[in-house]
UniProtKB/TrEMBL annotation:
Membrane topology, as annotated: Single-pass membrane protein
Originating organism: Panagrolaimus davidi
Compartments, record wording: Membrane
Similarity annotation: Belongs to the glycosyltransferase 92 family.
Top class in the EC scheme: transferase
This protein's GO CC annotations: membrane
Record-given protein name: Glycosyltransferase family 92 protein
InterPro entries, A to Z: Glyco_transf_92, GTase_92
EC number annotated for this UniProt entry: 2.4.1.-
Length: 447
């Protein structure tokens, strides 16, 4: 929940997950807010954050907004407009970030994460080309991945944003009929993406919404200069869609043999475009979807041409570079001999980047990659990519091992409390702060 300014004055924005069949127009919920001087009840407006509900997923992502008093000290929801505060469920809220970051990078959440090479590559490239802040949503990953992210956070290059899959007790699951966290598309990435945009829309003019392996290489000197060119050319567009092409980098499996300069110099690219990723203009776009915009003013985003815009879907494993059959269809492995070398950064700049990297990570002890989770999930999603399955497209459908040798994991958790309004509406609300659990041989997302 956010107190937001780019909506009407004194607005509260709520990102929530609920049953996708909820009748938004008939939902009789009101907001209640107060400060030291006054109180206010206002109607809650609820909308799906995007245009097309996920196929075969029971729950969806919604955005709600309502008017509040100025500078509220209390906010809550109720199903009736009255002076009785006893029927109000308190909702804690945050303020958006106001510090200026003209261009922000919102990553989709990391889950069972072990791809430290791609995290380093993405963070370094985005910083080099002028991203002002990178927001890394993370649920779970190898301890060494967390160590790397914490170093970048200390450098003020990125912000670690905790992202939980709420656990529901057996009684709640039985009452609902399913486990809600397991009925949300993918990694519930649409929730994290909308959350990130709401947090940074006050501070940023442009927001890139993409995965850790999606790297935008600007043709101008930096991202801001490039996005200003597109804004001038398409002044009414709420955003821009960069088509993607496959990229491949060569990396070792162990950290002690990792050379950032060698990795950058190894970049090779395909020339076959496929589904892109969005760049939002925060004064016109409200929410992102995976490959385009969710809600926006003045129509849809502009699809940019491949010759003018470069976003690479960068892989470290040849087995995960797919043959592009069409804009949204893939075959088996691509022939990497058809890829061409790509050199977006001068040799002197590469050397400077590498020297800075070595100094920053000199205290990281050696470790070896472990892609057990990543490989299983890749194969699982590959089998479901035609969207014709009769189940929700999520990693929780994949057959993951209970234990993974040499996978020391850190997972973020947050407990929930159950609140009911007149037996009509049930709310599952965070009741404490985030906390991390550690395990030596698995990532434990649920009890």
């Amino acid at each position: 929940m956010f107190q937001n300014c780019k909506y009407s004055p004194n607005s509260m924005i709520i990102i929530l997950n609920t049953n996708k069949l909820v009748e938004t127009q008939k939902l009789a919920l009101h907001c209640f807010s107060k400060n030291a001087r006054t109180t206010l009840f206002s109607k809650l407006q609820l909308r799906l954050t995007h245009k097309i509900p996920a196929k075969n997923c029971q729950w969806e992502v919604f955005v709600a907004n309502c008017e509040t008093v100025s500078n509220p000290t209390f906010f809550g929801l109720t199903d009736q407009e009255s002076d009785d505060e006893k029927n109000v469920i308190e909702i804690k809220f945050d303020f958006p970030v106001f510090e200026k970051y003209p261009v922000a990078m919102c990553y989709t959440p990391l889950v069972y994460e072990a791809r430290w090479q791609q995290i380093v590559f993405a963070t370094e490239i985005y910083h080099h080309f002028g991203i002002d802040i990178q927001i890394q949503y993370i649920n779970s990953g190898m301890k060494k991945v967390m160590d790397i992210l914490k170093i970048y956070e200390k450098k003020n290059w990125l912000k670690i944003q905790e992202f939980v899959f709420y656990d529901f007790d057996k009684e709640s699951v039985k009452k609902i009929g399913f486990h809600p966290s397991k009925e949300l598309l993918g990694r519930n990435l649409l929730t994290s993406s909308a959350d990130c945009v709401m947090r940074y829309r006050e501070s940023s003019e442009f927001i890139i919404s993409a995965d850790i392996d999606d790297i935008l290489f600007p043709k101008e000197k930096d991202y801001y200069a490039e996005f200003l060119i597109w804004t001038k050319k398409y002044p009414d567009a709420p955003g821009f869609i960069y088509p993607r092409i496959y990229g491949k980098i060569d990396t070792p499996n162990d950290f002690q043999n990792f050379s950032l300069s060698a990795v950058i110099e190894s970049i090779k690219m395909s020339n076959k475009p496929f589904m892109g990723k969005p760049i939002l203009r925060t004064d016109r776009a409200e929410t992102p979807w995976i490959h385009w915009l969710g809600l926006s003013k003045n129509g849809d985003a502009v699809d940019l041409d491949q010759k003018d815009a470069i976003m690479a879907h960068v892989q470290i494993s040849a087995e995960k570079v797919r043959a592009v059959k069409s804009y949204g269809s893939f075959g088996e492995n691509e022939n990497l001999n058809t890829f061409k070398s790509f050199n977006p950064i001068s040799k002197n700049e590469i050397e400077a980047i590498n020297e800075n990297f070595i100094k920053s990570f000199e205290n990281i002890t050696n470790f070896v990659s472990n892609f057990v989770y990543a490989d299983i999930i890749f194969g699982c999603f590959k089998d479901s990519e035609h969207w014709n399955q009769d189940y929700c497209y999520t990693q929780f459908r994949c057959k993951l091992p209970k234990n993974v040798t040499n996978f020391e994991c850190e997972t973020v958790r947050r407990n929930i409390s159950v609140k009911t309004l007149n037996k009509n509406s049930v709310f599952y609300i965070p009741k404490n702060e985030y906390f991390w659990i550690k395990s030596k041989d698995n990532c434990k997302l649920f009890d």
